[in-house]
């Protein structure tokens, strides 16, 4: 169970990081900030 939690958490962080990078590339600063903040939670 613990490894499932770790795997899920890692997938979520990778997805949010990707979203932040896409927002940065498209100039969507508020989208980038929201994604970065979600990573911190």
Oligomer: single chain
| Net shape | elongated
The value of Rg in angstroms is 12 Å
- How much β-strand is present in the residues? under 5%
What are the secondary-structure elements, in order, as H or E? HH
**Overall structural domain count:** 1
* Number of extended strands: 0
Q: Give the distance, in angstroms, between the N- and C-terminal Cα atoms.
A: 21 Å
**What percentage of residues falls in helices of 4 or more residues?**
over 70%
Largest sheet: none
Structural class: mainly alpha
Mean pLDDT: 95
- Spans of at least 5 consecutive residues whose pLDDT stays below 50 are none
Number of helical segments with 4 or more residues = 2
Written account of the structure:
It is a single chain. With 41 residues, this protein is mostly helical. It has one domain (1-40). 90% of the residues lie in helices and 0% in strands. It contains 2 helices and no strands. It has helices at residues 2-26, 29-40. The longest helix is centred in the middle third of the chain and has 25 residues, at 2-26.
Summary of the model, kept short:
Helices cover 90% and strands 0% of the residues.
List the keywords:
single chain, 41 residues, mainly alpha
Summarize the topology.
Elements: H1 2-26, H2 29-40
